[in-house]
Every structure is written in structure tokens, then in C-alpha cells.
């Protein structure tokens, strides 16, 4: 999935347990890392829940926190040049990461989330283009003072695409089935004590064992999806949901045809009758498809391949959107040489992030810490370690190294990212007295050596999941980073009963992590999308994991 020059083609958003057509491993996020390595690391560990349980007692004194739903759920980002022609009844969209089947309960892969959530299946709540929780099947919700009880008030007169009524019982059944059968992402609801429904009052009540400030956001994904408890269908090739579209045709690793759902109950009625999603793993083929008109939208397009469209604004629009991908260059905190904080700090000062970003086309953003801009607790930390070769050399000298007596380190990463990043980093670090060996390996080798065995000096991988700060509060994670204050702050953030309190605690923890320099966050990858003028309503932000299509139109 990597480009010849190492530019990111959104390998980070891939989580299917498959390989792509070129044979490169497609998984890079934590959900897939765990599936492949068979070592569950997702979410707070038992020791963290113990801390949270203590904190919750103190949190009860905090006042009631009533969620105030935002206005529009999952709105698109209209930004195009209208042509004044007639509206097409079909829009064809080129995406990169193809699902192998449609079974969203059992199959990992953000490709499934991307095409099904918000289009075919709907959740109890949803996310908008700014990664904020908004209403969906629930029109509003209340939270108890202690953060242990959530009451969801559902919309009226909801139906599934087969005509069955969508009730509170369906909602509770769906979440309870997820927990009981341990469907995909069930572990993210490990704090749930019970899920109960009251069809007469049209409410669903979720009770927790311990307060969890991430619950609402978690329910915007697979854990909150609502299924028809009475429906019978083949979930691998069919889908029965309550969203604005139905799956009319599915061709594995090739395409999905979506048709407007005539029984759709909500405000997001599909504006285009048919949306065809074509999966184009080869970047050159994808570019040619947009040029020829076989597709009207391409998401993503590699920034370095976008120039023909950028320079032709009369016919095309090209725009980069925000996402949560973080290119994490981790230093083994227990490594022979990287356990020396001076070495880690020197590396951070030595890296010229502007140079790295420019070589990839310039769309990415500098990121100075573990939380990206769309996640809770974000603070601009790029000023902590600005590019400063003199400071880097001074720190290396303190540690006993120089250009005449270099420190030998190995950077290990998967071949899906190409070689250019490694070459650039080797060149930049050589200037401060680090002889960097770049070891580009198969993804399976990286999983075994780095992720599982933690046998590495420096590693590089794209962590694309949102709300994944827990990694830095887990001393058993492959970073080998163990900071008790960070763990305590994260536990307090999870147990917080207000978003402001949560965000403040996360920001404080993130700053501590960044100051410790257990990694360098090379950049926040931004997805570049290109479309033919006449297309409107296609979402730009987060479109590799969140792709509501109800608002998309194409005027020829």
C-alpha cells in the first residue's frame, strides 16, 4: 500500500486481516495489530481499572452532566464548483481499502466502518466531521451525577430497510449481543454492567461498573450499531440496517453498490439514488480512473500524484482533510541505548519535520505529541522540540557520542511505508552523531519482532485510531514506556464526568509524555481527496474511517 517514494496511501486506515493485490500487508492500526499478534492491548488494563474504581468514588461529588446534542449528525463538507447541469442519479467513488466481506460484527477493518457506518448501519449515537458525538438513533441522552448511568431517548417511528420497526429492544439487544458474543470491539465496553430497554418510554439505559468518559464516543463506532433482532440474512454478503442506503451489490475486493433506502426514517435521506464504491488499490490506476471519469471522487489521492488535478481547477477540486493518523517513531524506552533520555531528546531536536512533510507533498501537519487535533486533550506541542541541530549535538555529546564517535541504532519498520522516510531520517540523524541502520521488513516481521517481542531500538508505524492515548498509559505496550504520573492522569481522565475535566487531564498527560520523548510524532497524516467539479457534499475530514454519503450529489 505504500507509494514508491514512501508517501502514505492511507495504509494506516487499513485493518482487514488480508493482504492487498500487491501482496503488501494492509493492517497497521492497533485493532489489527492485536488481531495479528494475538496479544490484546486495546483499552485500559486491569491495573488501570483498579485506579479508575478508586477515582470514581471521588468523582461522585461532581455535578450532573447532561449531554447537549449537537445539531446535524455526520454532515458532509460541500466544497465544489457547480456546473449548472443536471443532477446525476449515480455517483462513483474511488476508495483504496477494500473489505473482504460485509460482516461488521466479526471482521476487523476500517474499510467496513468507512462504507457501512452511517450509510447502511446506524449507531445509537454518531460522529460528525470534527470527531464530535452527535445524535443518531438516540435524539438525546442524560448522564447521572456519578457518570455510571446513561439514559438514551430514542427517535420515534424508526424502521429498518426491510420494513421492520426499530425499537428500544433492538438497541439493547444489539449491544448485549456484542458483549455476550464478544463481537469486534466488544472489549471497549468492558466497563458496561447492563443495557436495558423500555419500549413504552422509548428509552435505553446503559449502566456502568466504572465511569468512562469515552463511552459516548465508543458508541459512535461498532459497539453502538443497531441491528434488527428479527432479521435473517447472510451478514458476509448482505446488510440490513436503518441508514439512508442499502447494499444492492457487493463484489469482494472490487466494489459495493449502494441504493437509496426507500424506507429510511431520518433526516439524512440520500440525495443520490445510487452510489458505487470502487476499490482501487493501485494509485496510478486510481488517478487514471479519475482522469477518465470512471470515478468522480478519489479518496485518498497521494499528494505527490495530485498535481494534474490541482493544476486543473476548472475541472477538479483537491482538498486535504484532517484525520487522526499519527506517524509514531517510537524509541524503545527500555532499549540499551534508547533508555537514555538525552539520546531520545537529541533525536527529537535533530528531526526536521518540515522537510519530511514537504517531501510528501506538504499536506500533512506537524505533531508534537501523542494526541492529534481531532481528539480530546489536543494541545499544540510542536514547540517542545523544535528543529535544533546544535541542541541535539550537545545532548549527544553529554551522552558520549559525536559525529566522530557515532551511536549505532536501528530503525525497523514495515515495507508498506516505502524507503524514503528511512533514508531521510538516516541523513538527518547522521548530522548529530547517530549511525542509523534502516531495516525495512515485511509487516509480519515487524509485528513479531517489534510489536510482540519488543526487540527494537527505534520503530515507525502509523497509528490511525482515534482516542488511543491509552497506549502511553500502558507499560506493557510495545513502547515499554512506564510513567506512573501519566497512568494516574489517564485514569482520572477516563473517570471524569465532564468533557472539560477529561480534556484538561489528557492534555496534561500528553505534555508529560512528549517531554519524556519516548517517541517522535513525525507528522499527523492528512487525507487528500480529489473530485470532479460538480460533486458536492463529499466529506473531507476523517473520510477514511467516517464516510457519510447521503449528502453527495454530482451535477454533470
TrEMBL record:
Residue span of region Disordered: 1-39
One MF term in the entry's GO annotations: peptide transmembrane transporter activity
Ranges for domain Solute-binding protein family: 132-466
GO cellular component terms, A-Z: ATP-binding cassette (ABC) transporter complex; periplasmic space
Family matches, as PANTHER family: D,D-DIPEPTIDE-BINDING PERIPLASMIC PROTEIN DDPA-RELATED (PTHR30290:SF38), PERIPLASMIC BINDING COMPONENT OF ABC TRANSPORTER (PTHR30290)
Membrane-spanning residues: 46-67
Keywords linked to the UniProt accession: Membrane, Signal, Transmembrane, Transmembrane helix
Transmembrane keyword on record: yes
Claim: Ribonucleoprotein is one of the keywords in the record: no
Domain of life the protein comes from: Bacteria
Gene source species: Bifidobacterium biavatii DSM 23969
Composition bias, Low complexity: 1-31
GO terms for biological process, alphabetical: peptide transport
Pfam families according to UniProt: SBP_bac_5
Descriptive protein name: Glutathione-binding protein
Amino acid at each position: 500500500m505504500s507509494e514508491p517514494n514512501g508517501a502514505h496511501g492511507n495504509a494506516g486506515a487499513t485493518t482487514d486481516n488480508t493482504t492487498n493485490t500487491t501482496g503488501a500487508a494492509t493492517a497497521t492500526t492497533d485493532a489489527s495489530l492485536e488481531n495479528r499478534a494475538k496479544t490484546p492491548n486495546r483499552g485500559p488494563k486491569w491495573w488501570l481499572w483498579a485506579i479508575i474504581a478508586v477515582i470514581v468514588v471521588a468523582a461522585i461529588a461532581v455535578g450532573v452532566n447532561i449531554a447537549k446534542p449537537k445539531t446535524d449528525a455526520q454532515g458532509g463538507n460541500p466544497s465544489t464548483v457547480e456546473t449548472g447541469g443536471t443532477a446525476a442519479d449515480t455517483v462513483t467513488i474511488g476508495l483504496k481499502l477494500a473489505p473482504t466481506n460485509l460482516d461488521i460484527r466479526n471482521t476487523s477493518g476500517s474499510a467496513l466502518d468507512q462504507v457501512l457506518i452511517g450509510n447502511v448501519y446506524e449507531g445509537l449515537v454518531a460522529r460528525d466531521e470534527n470527531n464530535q458525538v452527535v445524535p443518531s438513533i438516540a435524539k438525546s441522552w442524560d448522564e447521572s451525577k456519578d457518570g455510571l448511568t446513561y439514559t438514551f431517548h430514542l427517535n420515534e417511528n424508526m424502521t429498518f430497510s426491510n420494513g421492520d420497526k426499530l425499537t428500544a429492544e433492538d438497541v439493547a439487544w444489539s449491544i448485549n449481543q456484542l458483549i455476550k458474543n464478544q463481537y469486534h470491539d466488544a472489549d471497549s465496553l468492558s466497563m458496561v454492567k447492563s443495557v436495558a430497554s423500555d419500549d413504552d418510554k422509548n428509552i435505553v439505559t446503559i449502566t456502568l461498573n466504572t465511569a468512562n468518559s469515552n463511552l459516548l464516543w465508543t458508541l459512535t463506532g461498532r459497539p453502538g450499531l443497531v441491528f434488527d433482532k428479527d432479521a435473517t440474512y447472510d451478514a458476509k454478503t448482505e446488510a440490513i440496517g436503518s441508514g439512508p442506503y442499502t447494499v444492492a451489490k457487493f463484489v469482494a475486493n472490487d466494489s459495493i453498490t449502494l441504493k437509496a433506502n426507500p424506507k429510511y426514517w431520518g433526516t439524512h435521506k440520500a440525495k443520490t439514488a445510487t452510489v458505487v464504491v470502487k476499490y482501487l488499490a493501485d494509485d496510478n490506476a486510481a488517478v487514471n480512473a479519475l482522469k477518465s471519469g470512471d470515478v468522480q471522487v478519489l479518496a485518498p489521492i497521494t499528494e505527490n500524484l495530485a498535481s494534474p488535478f490541482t493544476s486543473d481547477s476548472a475541472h477538479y477540486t483537491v482538498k486535504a482533510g484532517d484525520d487522526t493518523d499519527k506517524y509514531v517513531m517510537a524509541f524503545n524506552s527500555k532499549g540499551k541505548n534508547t533508555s537514555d533520555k538525552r539520546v531520545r531528546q537529541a533525536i527529537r531536536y535533530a528531526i526536521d519535520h518540515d522537510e519530511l512533510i514537504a517531501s510528501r507533498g506538504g499536506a500533512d501537519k506537524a505533531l508534537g505529541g501523542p494526541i492529534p487535533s481531532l481528539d480530546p486533550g489536543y494541545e499544540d506541542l510542536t514547540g517542545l522540540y523544535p528543529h535544533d541541530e546544535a541542541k541535539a549535538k550537545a545532548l549527544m555529546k553529554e551522552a558520549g557520542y559525536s559525529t566522530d564517535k557515532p551511536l549505532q541504532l536501528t530503525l525497523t519498520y514495515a515495507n508498506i511505508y516505502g524507503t524514503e522516510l528511512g533514508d531521510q531520517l538516516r541523513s538527518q540523524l547522521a548530522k548529530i552523531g547517530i549511525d542509523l541502520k534502516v531495516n525495512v521488513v515485511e509487516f509480519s516481521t515487524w509485528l513479531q519482532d517489534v510489536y510482540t517481542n519488543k526487540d527494537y531500538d527505534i520503530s515507525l508505524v502509523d497509528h490511525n485510531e482515534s482516542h488511543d492515548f491509552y497506549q502511553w498509559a500502558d507499560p506493557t505496550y510495545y513502547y515499554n514506556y512506564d510513567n506512573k504520573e501519566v497512568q494516574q492522569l489517564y485514569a482520572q481522565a477516563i473517570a471524569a464526568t465532564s468533557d472539560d475535566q477529561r480534556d484538561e487531564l489528557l492534555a496534561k498527560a500528553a505534555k508529560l509524555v512528549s517531554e519524556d520523548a519516548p517517541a517522535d510524532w513525525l507528522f499527523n497524516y492528512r487525507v487528500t481527496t480529489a473530485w470532479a467539479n460538480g460533486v458536492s457534499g463529499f466529506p473531507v475530514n476523517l473520510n477514511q474511517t467516517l464516510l457519510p454519503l447521503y449528502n453527495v450529489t454530482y451535477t454533470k
